[in-house]
Amino acid sequence: TERTLSIIKPDATSRNLTGKINAKFEEAGLRIVAQKRIQLSKEQAGEFYKVHAERPFYGELCEFMASGPVVVQVLEGESAITKNREVMGATNPADADEGTIRAEFAESVGENSVHGSDAPETAAEEIAFFFSGLEIVG
Ligand code: GTP
Ligand code: MG
Fold it and tell me: Do 17 and 102 touch, CB atoms closer than 8 A?
């Protein structure tokens, strides 16, 4: 089994969609083994998304991620990284497959409801960014 970091973004928490999104994870066989609701500062959002620092949307992305509460979580399961990205759907909701979280809930390419780690190395880094080992109970 594998673990991945997931974030339910401010556009989704503000529309009260945390439970519906968690249901999608659980229906796909992903277990929520850690979860907390927090609000990031712009600086923390910038640190988390530093790989995108040179992208034109970086400022907007950091501002958005700090604009309201997020729910950060660790999902566990068989091929959890890939499986979570399947459940999330394409970055742009207009391209996301039917039934995915982004197809159902996302508002735009920027306000796209969820984040998921994209590889084992980034998953390990991103989990450690938010959680200590004691907070993850498999
Ligand atoms: P994450 O799981 O959030 O990393 O999404 P992703 O891997 O599908 O997309 P990517 O890593 O390429 O981009 C990270 C995030 O930046 C996206 O989820 C969007 O929130 C945001 N983003 C990407 N492209 C754009 C864009 O063209 N405009 C804006 N405003 N935001 C964008
Ligand atoms: Mg990404």
Answer: no
